[in-house]
Amino acid sequence: MALLNSLFALNPEVEKLSFLNRSNIEMENMFFDEEIIDLKHTYHFTGVLNNGKSDLLKNHISDFFNTSDNNIKISAEVLSQCYSFIENLYPSVLEQLEIDNVYSTPYGTVVFDWEKDVDNAFSLEIGAKELGYFIEVNGSDDKQVDSLLLDESKNELLQDLSSFLSV
Amino acid sequence: MLEFLKPISENHSISRAVASVFIPQAFLKPQDIFEKTKDVDGFKDYPKKGLIKATTINIQNNSLGISNEQIKGFIFESYDGKGSINNVFKLENSKENQSVLSLENRKYKDWDTFKSQLDSDLNSFSEMNYFYVEAISLNYRDEFLWTDRNSVIPVADIFNMDSELLNKKFLSSKNGTLVLVSQGNEENGLPYEEKTEISFNNDIKRIVIDHQYAKRFDDIKLFSNLKKDIQFSSLFNVAHLENKKILKDILTVDSQNLIKLK
Questions:
Q1: What is the mean pLDDT of residues A151-156?
Q2: Residue A25 needs a FRET pair 20 to 30 A away by CA distance; which of A16, A140, B169, B241 works?
Q3: Three-state SS at A86
Q4: Which chain A residue has its CA at the smallest distance from B85's CA?
Q5: What residue ranges do the domains of chain B occupy?
Q6: Does A128 score more than 80 pLDDT?
């Protein structure tokens, strides 16, 4: 398995949850050059494609699931909801999300913040069943919604996000 | 027994299909390619067009930092009637001497529809840009949800226990992943690479089968020459069939019926 791990990213759903695979992604990248005399180096094409940022984001969120720190721990339901959300996210919207701006709360929810500057922000909170978000434009509240179901409201959410980011 | 097994789409389980063309060079200024490509008529069905930046990962005091700097490609997006993502057409410098042109479809209808979109997009791109092709690949991701949180995914009813690709250890896991990567030569002598990932996870109640098949041409070829006598997309037919073969091998007949696999 060790041969495969660093070049072929497994599906994040599984890889990031695996106890055996807890090495830091940044470390893998750092030592990548040193591992180059490896059998896997003969594979030129199947290792190239990955969903770089969404995998990174899933990895980041699965840390909140795997942690033993109750202040930031999330449940499998929240993890699953976040994965569904990330998979639906427009690639262009994902581009503009800073991984540092995704964090878990003491309530077991996960917050995603898109910040253009201090006065313009889009903040989304995902829980086990519901989600909510608010949009702040030029320092004042533009929209706030709570208790939405992801399946029912994802398109409205995505369109709000997309138009917030393109203004 | 499979009442809680839900393919990700109504008629099939394909959550995404990605066709990629490997170009044996990186583009020096992707923003220039973007500027001359974005207004081509064939891309008018992509309402959103933008550049993509390289995401570099740094370590600062043991924490993960991400910074966006260099432009490494562009991305065109289209949506379905409800506003969900439909097609993503992308050019991305992947290595110093390689870039990848790809079409990703997230609302898969059928192989013919996908192929005609692929031909149309690649032809539109080639109107403005000459490029060489080193290899092509096709990736399918099939996904199922297990909708009952209180029961364990019945692996034995979903996967074909007699498949030679699967083994006992995997099938008896709580969360399991199998990865198989192989290289070989097609009947026509062209080298191929194939990667299959089969996984299920009881924490998030999902089953994912990810298959990628890449083939390399014996020499780098100009795209415009490759498509002279044939539809370029027909070069992907073998990869499409290999994907079906894998699914037929590893899924039980009940699961196959659920996704109307023929």
A1: 86
A2: B169
A3: helix
A4: A90
A5: 5-258
A6: yes
**Count of Cβ atoms closer than 10 Å to residue B169 Cβ:** 9
Min distance A10 CA to chain B CA atoms (Å) = 7
Would you call B193 and A162 a contact, using CB atoms and an 8 Å cutoff? no
Q: Which residues of chain B have a CB within 8 Å of the CB of A56?
A: 55, 57, 66
Residue with tokens 């996704």: B259
Beta carbons of A21 and A9 less than 8 angstroms apart: no
- What are the structure tokens assigned to A28, written together? 């893998």
State the Cα–Cα distance between residues A17 and A62, nearest whole angstrom. 7
Structure tokens given for B19 = 């066709």
| Interface A-B: count of C-beta contacts within 8 A | 129
CA distance B28 to B97: 10
A88 touches chain B (CB under 8 A): yes
Structure tokens, B126: 């080639």
Cβ contact B55–A56 (<8 Å): yes
**Contact (CB<8Å) B206/A15:** no
* pLDDT, tens digit, 9 for 90 and up, residues B2-55: 999 999 988 899 999 999 999 999 999 999 999 999 999 999 999 999 998 876
* CA B24 to chain centroid: 19
Q: From CA B255, how far away is CA A30, in angstroms rounded?
A: 42
Residue B154 CA to residue B12 CA, distance in Å, equals 19
